Amino acid sequence: MHGEAQDPSQNGADFLGREEGEDPREWLVTFADMCLLLLVFFILLFSMSKMDHDRFQESFFSVRMALGERMGGTPGGDMIREEDLGVFIDQALIHKQMVENQQRIFSDFRYYQNTHGLEGVVGAIFDEGIITLRVPGDVLFELGQITLTPEGRRIIAQLKDFFIRYHDQVINIRGFTDDLPVRGGRFQDNWEISALRSVNVLRYLLEMGLEPHRLTSTGLADMYPLYPNTCEENRSRNRRVEFVLEKRIGR
Q1: Confidence of residue 83 (pLDDT cuts 50, 70, 90)
Q2: What's the CATH superfamily of 98-247?
Q3: Residue 178 backbone phi and psi in degrees, to 5
Q4: Which of 12-16, 25-29, 150-154 has the highest mean pLDDT?
Q5: Could you say which of 57, 71, 150, 215 is the most buried, measured as most Cβ atoms within 10 Å of its Cβ?
Q6: DSSP string, 134-150
Q7: How far apart are CA 64 and CA 210, in angstroms?
């Protein structure tokens, strides 16, 4: 009769809508990928806490056993290889040690900043092991110019004294402008101005003895503004030079 429920098995499909001959375990592939992603996320979170090898191993195997049971395997089975445990532990330890090392350097700079009259002039930010020092562009350069001012050279010289203390740090010098277009003059656009400013800062550091292999320069024009370019005060804040410090691998 019309309107009566039919048995899905009569038309070649089960109650889940699968066709005949379809492997009912195909969803396990997606589920396995999700579980592995969760495992990686768990290990990254764990690496940010106090590291204890025995505790890490115990937690790792707990997750491994849980995943083995959910996937139909036996607890402690071969879904995750034994050697992977050592790799995960090494990577977590290296990351943790790197962040702690950078945190100490950042703390040292805050002290250096206070004792050398740089507070209120040079900003300092720490984020996931990366130290960013910000210097206002209007302090380093005259508006629309690429030559360091006397005050700018003095500040860079003070930063150089700090950089020399930490040979394991590579430094990317990044120049930024506001969003006002360049009209006339000898520069084509803000890209050229920001690039030449960062290069001139790099050259001055080289003149004062910093190792060339530690330095790179990047011009980013008006990209990544700190504030909306809606007034002159905000534009002045967006004109800046940043020194991005990261630990050099293998040092």
Answers
A1: low
A2: OmpA-like domain (3.30.1330.60)
A3: -85, -170
A4: 150-154
A5: 215
A6: EEEHHHHB-TT--SBPH
A7: 48
pLDDT tier, 21 (very low <50, low <70, confident <90, very high otherwise): low
Q: With a threshold of 0.85, does the pTM exceed it?
A: no
Q: Which whole-number Å values give the CA distances from 83 to 37, 63, 80, 86, in the listed order?
A: 18, 16, 9, 6
Phi, psi of 171, deg, nearest 5: -130, 120
Q: Let me know: does 221 contact 197? Beta carbons within 8 Å.
A: no
Angle ∠(200,202,206) on CA atoms, nearest 5: 115
What CA–CA distance (Å, rounded) separates 239 from 226? 9
What pLDDT, on the 0 to 100 scale, is given for residue 38?
76
Per the model's pLDDT, the better-predicted residue between 17 and 132 turns out to be 132
**pLDDT tens, residue by residue, 186-200:** 999 999 999 999 999
